[in-house]
Amino acid sequence: MSSAVRHTLAAIWRIESAHIVAAVARRVRDLGVAEELAQDALVAALEHWPKDGLPDKPAAWLMTTAINRALDWLRHRLMVEARHNDIASDLQAQQAHVVPDFVDTLDAARQDEMGDDLLRLIFTACHPVLSSDARVALTLKLLGGLSTQEIARAFLVPEATIAQRIVRAKRALADAQVPFEVPRGGQLAERLASVLEVVYLVFNEGYTATSGSDWMRPELCSEALRLGRMLAELAPDQAEVHGLVALMEIQASRSAARTDAQGKPVLLNQQNRARWDHLLIRRGLAALERSERLGQAPGSYFLQAAIAACHARAPTAEETDWARIAALYTQLMQVAPSPVVQLNRAVAVSIHEGPAAGLAILDTLLLDKTLQSYHLLHAVHADLLQKLGRQDEARAALHHAAALTHNEQERALLVQRAQE
């Protein structure tokens, strides 16, 4: 196969694989089978395109081939079950969804159908019956278009581990007979929270890697942003979806300024704001406005995006509206209380009202057993102690924080601060 054809096929598959798997899954009602049939279409392309040339509509070729594989699979299953009387009607019903020769543009009904399929796929891959790790791996595989090897490399785990998670996830969905559908009514909000959680987990792992030698993994941030934007198009009336997109866009805008020329981390208040991506900031602020216009109760992602927007709007670190940030964190504690949110609130209060006020909040967190191994708690503690002139205690807290982190760049930064 020529390198040009191989590169084209890889690019098309990365973009279209989720649509193809989703369309097949709606027909066969089994996520594992759907992925296998979609892969069969990919193999067929590898066999035919080098000999026959690149088709006029490569994505349509892959979709049609995969759906034909699905129809063959359904026909075989019906024959095995000896349901001869139902074969003709069942195949006719399935065939009604097939477009043998794709036209240049899809009509509105077809676009809605594809959107519905993707929504079904997202909600299935992020089903709460799966563990968080399994949901992340399956989502990146099916919706991100990443290979098992790419996912393993991004999360610094063996490829066999990721492969096993994906296999077990598909088996768990089949065993639990999870329907391939978008939940309705009260279940929608509950399941949507699971979907948004997975997307944000992927983004956070890319934004600040929890382990390894790299401070960031940009490819994961990109995949999370792509998933978030896709979800915003598919669920435009859900304020928290736009809130999450706003949050990720604004945070991603700082990526170029988060490391220096040597690749070492640069903290937010020390970043060169001229290096921030102002296109991403504008997109983030627009998504935040869309979320607010929907008039729904402020959710966790909306409030976090509003906090990020305070930083994005400030020309310099000194001009940041810390009073508003502290108030937003107080509101966030009411909506989604957690020790980590309270820790961030302590930082905001310390900057707005002084280190002693922040330390008063932090003292209660230092007694919380769930945060004892969280390195950022001790890093913040050190910062407040240093501002209060308690240098020896601050140095000890920084060394403690350095010992707890698994990211090499972050550990080096904390050790350097302790030495200084």
UniProtKB/TrEMBL annotation:
Domain RNA polymerase sigma factor 70 region 4 type as annotated: residue spans: 122-173
Domain DUF6596 span(s) in chain numbering: 191-291
GO molecular function, one term: DNA binding
Pfam assignment, any one: DUF6596
Domain RNA polymerase sigma-70 region: residue ranges: 21-76
Organism superkingdom: Bacteria
GO biological process: DNA-templated transcription initiation
NCBIfam families: sigma70-ECF
Protein name: RNA polymerase subunit sigma-24
Protein species of origin: Rhodoferax fermentans
Taxonomic path: Bacteria, Pseudomonadati, Pseudomonadota, Betaproteobacteria, Burkholderiales
